[in-house]
Amino acid sequence: MFLPQITRPNNFTIKHYAGDVLYDCQGFVEKNKDVLFKDLVLCMQSTDQDFILDLFPEDVA
């Protein structure tokens, strides 16, 4: 559950089963961004399936 009370700017709290966890929004996306191996992206971009090509555009590799 999300707790809307913000104690400090850029922070939010989520109630986990083990207790409340305070998160900081600064750099949150960068720290939690999944990165695919370049070889996997290039492999997906070499397909002839339009759906897959839409998921892996050329300018991302």
Automatic annotation (TrEMBL):
Single biological process term from Gene Ontology: actin filament organization
Gene Ontology cellular-component terms listed: cytoplasm; myosin complex; plasma membrane
Domain Myosin motor stretches: 1-61
InterPro entries documented for this protein: Myosin_head_motor_dom-like (IPR001609), P-loop_NTPase (IPR027417)
Coiled coil: none
Keyword terms of this UniProt record: Actin-binding, ATP-binding, Motor protein, Myosin, Nucleotide-binding
Keyword Phosphoprotein appears in the UniProt entry: no
Membrane found in the keyword field: no
GO molecular function: actin filament binding; ATP binding; microfilament motor activity
Family: Belongs to the TRAFAC class myosin-kinesin ATPase superfamily. Myosin family.
Protein name: Myosin motor domain-containing protein
